[in-house]
């Protein structure tokens, strides 16, 4: 796909074509899985296409990196072995000991653990802030020391919404970068770089891969100096995605748009059902007009996504029972695959933040609404709620 097409064509066209030209020799329309660690050189230093060793570069990875960069409307993409590997490379690649990061008050538990138990030991400090409150973020910024404001929107698992444009302004005024974890929305629903963010990070394990069959991460940036630093650390730290994993994520991205539309359709109907159920005491979904972040979400997202959380009457025992009674919704961690998943954040994905400021309520249930027949999903929830 030419540079002109890459920037001018629609999202679905980019999803299917960006990052790869049919192979010159065979015409293969799908990038081969280049299962090779090294490349024959035509004389010392005579690299073909710049490939010398697969930690530094691999053509299947190049295809994925070009594709996800085009979807996020960025200049450069980088693929990693997991979302957390992407985050770690970003943090240690861009920050020095003594630097400070503002984190979401309800950050994904693994991201919080990475900062709290790992990066802190290397001198990177962090503090949480309620990201839906711009004044609270301003107060958490330490002038001269804060180098990153880290945003998740929507957040996991409480579906909080942060105003990307407002926070980008705030971060930039303080000389900090705005990093957005776009895992929950995916580039189909939200493109943070177009709203002023400097870096987008993904767990491609989720909607990007979309089929619960791969662990992966990605970083996308516009600024070429930032890209240079991230590319250097991707190679120097080595947490790269392997060629088969890249191929799976690339295949997933081709259908991202149609999958996301069905995830959103189904989630909207599930939310409507939950809203009328007497055992449900609260629903967290940014598509609800009563959600405090609804207006911001409507401005920066094209739709509201497939993640829904809710609280149940009867406290933690009842929330656990709902998770265990569901059948079409599979009890499991992760999200963003074609199949619906149900989980208890307090005991599962967010167990690592128990006892911290990020602890989640015990009566909370999280759904990753899949793309099955929606009537079956609703019947299943009805039975599970008793
Ligand atoms: C929002 C978010 N960011 C990052 C991650 C970490 O990604 P991975 O599990 O691919 O390392 C997750 C995983 O659940 C996530 O939900």
Summarize the structure.
The protein has 386 residues and is of the alpha/beta class.
Descriptive tags:
12 strands, binds pyridoxal-5'-phosphate, alpha/beta, 38% helix, 386 residues
Task: Give the helix/strand layout.
Layout: H1 3-8, H2 11-17, H3 59-71, E1 76-80, H4 83-94, E2 100-104, H5 109-118, E3 125-129, H6 134-140, E4 146-152, H7 164-173, E5 177-181, H8 186-189, E6 199-203, E7 217-221, H9 224-237, H10 243-254, H11 256-275, E8 280-284, H12 294-300, E9 307-312, H13 315-325, E10 330-331, E11 341-343, E12 364-368, H14 374-385
Parallel strand pairs: 2-3, 2-4, 4-5, 5-6, 10-11
Antiparallel strand pairs: 1-7, 6-7, 8-9, 9-12, 11-12
The structure holds pyridoxal-5'-phosphate.
The termini sit apart by 53 Å
Please identify the structural class as seen in this structure.
alpha/beta
General form: globular
Question: What's the β-strand tally?
Answer: 12
Strand content of the residues, in percent? Answer: 15-25%
Largest sheet, in brief, is:
7 strands, mixed
Unreliable runs? none
